[in-house]
Amino acid sequence: MAAMFDVVGVGANSVDYVYRLPEYPRPDSSASKLQIRSHLISCGGQVATALATCAAMGLKTTYVGAVGNDENGRRMRGELAARGVDVSHAVTRDAVNPYAVILLDERQGERIVLWDRSPALALRPDEIPRDVITSARLLHVDDVDEDASIRAVGYAREAGIPVTSDIERVTERTAELMAAVTIPILGEHVLEPLTGERDFERGLRALRRTHAGLLCVTLGSHGAMLLEGDRLHHVLGIRVPVTDTTGAGDVFRGAFIAALLRGDAPEAVLRFANAAAALSCTRTGAIASVPTTAEVESRA
Question: Among 253, 255, 285, 297, whose Cα sits 20 to 30 Å from the Cα of 80?
């Protein structure tokens, strides 16, 4: 049977209120009161941005997650649909959609994220559509609603479908999620609490003792690392004029998936994803920063 979707994503979405500032606020200084240079509303969220990236690169995608029944929930559905992401499997709740206030330092493009998400928006395991998961080519999950993600991963693994992840924190269930995911993609601050190793290579090799798949860690401006068997691949960050780093890690994951599904070798997958993330940093917003395949290939 042909795949219903190339990629199913289970996880978070967010509507971001982005405020561009001349510098970060600091109490007891002249930066305790700052003029907002500009502001905008932009859609994002870990899985939503990754799926938008996959869709921009020609993949058929669907989003499984919860949205609010407010204006921002409608905004989120509309943005994903406009970018080619199927939203027929998203559930709507009587709650305010997840949102974030992002303070963006215009000098360096770095940001601070302040977020809120109603407990009413937690995705339940019984809301995971098994038939959709098992008919996909790949499943991508985050660690926001761990019970739902673990249920989805279980369905995918039973069907022999590869699973990528966005793991950004360590909880009592992280080890269980890690063990189930085929290709864990970790944030740089996760390796040390997970393995006790500060060095990224040693951290990946420590994970290798219990996980046989490709192991990846994103390193922000320092690029990314991928452990393939015992072979370590490390690509350096690409120097670009940074406008906004919001969503760069999510774009990395979406581009990683796109390159993986087209059959690229592991090092080529890493280079493509790294270039996509760098390119996204030259634009403002998360989903709004998503590049096309042609744009990424001109940089990779």
Answer: 297
